[in-house]
Design brief:
The protein is mostly helical. It is built from 5 helices and 3 strands, in the order E-H-E-H-H-E-H-H.
Length: 94
Amino acid sequence: MCKRGVYGGCVTARWYVVVAVWSCTAGLLNIEGFYDSLLGFLDHLVREGFVRESARRIVLVASTPAELIDQMEGYKAPESLISMARKESKGQAL
């Protein structure tokens, strides 16, 4: 049900969060700390209670492609995200 993606380069924070949620995980290639500010913002959202820690963990981060691929190969999506993806694929309202 869940798709995986690896994204790099310049994207908006909103676009990245949407992709991460709908794909159940997203790999962020954080070369030379390019996404440190975005990651800090996501951590801030968790601290302030806007995002659950379990949701924050769907964003996998690495500084090399090999490390990111290793993380993605070992990733298991939380059951709550799998259930949401199943409902969406069946056309049910979330």
